[in-house]
Each structure stands twice: as C-alpha cells, then as structure tokens.
Amino acid sequence: MNTDITASAKPEYPVIDRNPPFTKVVGNFNFLDYCRFATITGVSVTVGYLSGIKPGIKGPSMVTGGLIGLMGGFMYAYQNSAGRLMGFFPNECEVAQYQKHGFNK
C-alpha cells in the first residue's frame, strides 16, 4: 500500500520539495498563513466564551475553544504552506525565493 500523498494527484504548480520536513513547512509560513492562524484562534476563543451558558463555565469554555482554534489554525496554516511547497497551491513567491537562494531539499 502506497501512503505517499503525491502518488494520488499530480501537482499543478512547480514542485519545490515533494516531501518537506516539519521545520521547512513551518519556516515557509507567510503573512497570510499567520493571519489565518490568528483569526481562527481568535474566533474560536470568542465562540468558546459565548458558548459558556452558565457564568462559572465561560472561562474554561473560552480556554477550550481557544486551544481547539489554536490547533485548527496551525493545521490550516501548515496545510497551506506544505501545499505550496509540494506544488498543489499557487507558489510563485516560493519558487522565486528558492530559485534565488537555491533549492534546499
């Protein structure tokens, strides 16, 4: 059984790294990834606070919502960054950057 995700779909954009390591993906986060990360986290904190019906549960509900949003926001930013490196999402800026500094696979 082949578990390589790139075996099931062909990338539409230039491939920078077919199987990027964690540090490379996180280092490739751009400003929009950080904005999405922060927005998802902030919305989750707010939803967690508002979903706490009883007064004594608003704080724990807000923290739980924030942690869920933090993890979800990170996973969304990670998915976008990895997709750009693997050529599944538009990656003009990354291609220019890695051509300028050389490909580090």
Automatic annotation (TrEMBL):
<dbReference type="InterPro" id="IPR053229">
    <property type="entry name" value="NADH-Q_oxidrdct_subunit"/>
</dbReference>
<dbReference type="Pfam" id="PF10785">
    <property type="entry name" value="NADH-u_ox-rdase"/>
</dbReference>
<dbReference type="InterPro" id="IPR019721">
    <property type="entry name" value="NADH-UbQ_OxRdtase_su21_N"/>
</dbReference>
<feature type="domain" description="NADH-ubiquinone oxidoreductase 21kDa subunit N-terminal">
    <location>
        <begin position="11"/>
        <end position="89"/>
    </location>
</feature>
<protein>
    <recommendedName>
        <fullName>NADH-ubiquinone oxidoreductase 21kDa subunit N-terminal domain-containing protein</fullName>
    </recommendedName>
</protein>
